[in-house]
Amino acid sequence: MQTDPLNDALVKIHNAEQAGKFSVNVTPASKLLGNVLEIMQKAGYVGEYEREENGRGGVYHIQLRGAINRCAAIKPRQSVKRQDFENWESRFLPAQDFGLLILSTSTGVMNHFDAKDARIGGKLLAYVY
Predict the structure, then answer these.
(1) What DSSP state is assigned to residue 49?
(2) From the centroid of its chain, how far is CA 58?
(3) Separation of alpha carbons 33 and 36, rounded Å
(4) Per-residue pLDDT tens for 30-83?
(5) What is the CATH number of the domain that holds 92?
(6) In which domain, by residue range, is 81 found?
(7) Is the pLDDT reported for residue 1 higher than 90?
(8) Which of 55, 61, 75, 111 would bridge with 100, disulfide CB 3.0–4.6 Å?
(9) Is 60 in the same domain as 75?
(10) In the chain, what percentage of residues exceed pLDDT 90?
C-alpha cells in the first residue's frame, strides 16, 4: 500500500538516475505526477515521457537524461507565502537559482520561479536539482 505516490515516483526516478539507467517506469500514473513531470521536462531534468493505461492505475514511461542530482518530495506539505521563497530555496536547494521548488497553487502546479512572477504562494510538493 502506497501512502505517498509522488514520493515513491521521485525516489524511483532518483534511484534510476544514480544507477545510470536510461529509462524508468513509474506506477501509478496520476495527474499530479504528470504535472510534476511536465515541469521537470520543461526545465531539462527528464526527457520524453508517456502515459500508458494498464487497467491498474496506469504507468509513466520516462526517459532519463542524467541531469538530476537529487529529487524528492517535501513532507509534510508546507504552505509557503510568496515572500518566503528565498527561505525555502536555502533550505532545500544547494544554491540560489539552482534547481526548482515545485509547488501546488490555486492556478495549478508550477515551479517557484513562475510562482514568483505570478506573485502567488501555495503548498510545496517537491524539489529537484
Answers:
(1) E
(2) 18
(3) 5
(4) 999 999 999 999 999 999 999 999 999 999 999 999 999 999 999 999 999 989
(5) 3.30.1490.10
(6) 71-128
(7) no
(8) 111
(9) no
(10) 95
Nearest to 17 by CA among 45, 38, 51, 44: 45
* Under 8 Å between Cβ of 125 and 109: yes
Q: What pLDDT score does 97 carry?
A: 84
**pLDDT, tens only, 40-52:** 999 999 999 999 9
CB neighbour list of residue 55: distance below 8 Å, 6 or more residues apart: none
In whole angstroms, what is the distance from residue 25 CA to residue 126 CA?
A: 19
State residue 68's pLDDT score: 95
DSSP state, 82? Answer: G
Grid cell, residue 11, equals: 525516489
Q: What is the CATH number of the domain that holds 40?
A: 3.30.1370.30
